[in-house]
Design goal:
Blueprint lengths: L1 H9 L7 H13 L2 E2 H8 L3 H13 L3 E8 L2 E8 L1 H20 L4
Antiparallel strand pairs: 1-3, 2-3
Helix pairs in contact: 1-5, 2-4
Length: 104
Amino acid sequence: MTRWVNHFKEIDPVLFNVKRLLIISLLVAIGPLTQGDLQKKCQLTWGALTAHVKQLQKAKYIEQRHVITIKGPRVLVDATQKGIEVYYETLTQLKEFIKGVPNN
């Protein structure tokens, strides 16, 4: 029983949050998104998005840069190489955790 619990403990604490996992999943799957697009796709308030983006930035899983678009200046959010690697590692750990959960 403790074997599957150990897989659970190994999951990255930053990505062990459904909203942060959603943010990094979108960035890995789709590519860079503006903050506005990310906010709409995640259906988060601006405050919640900002808080989760700060956590992901602090861990160096995402980066932001200012860009000029036809619609004016925007903030573009993108996954870093480290973020992509940790994302896939987290998915693997979640799969291992699910495999080890007893079927009672």
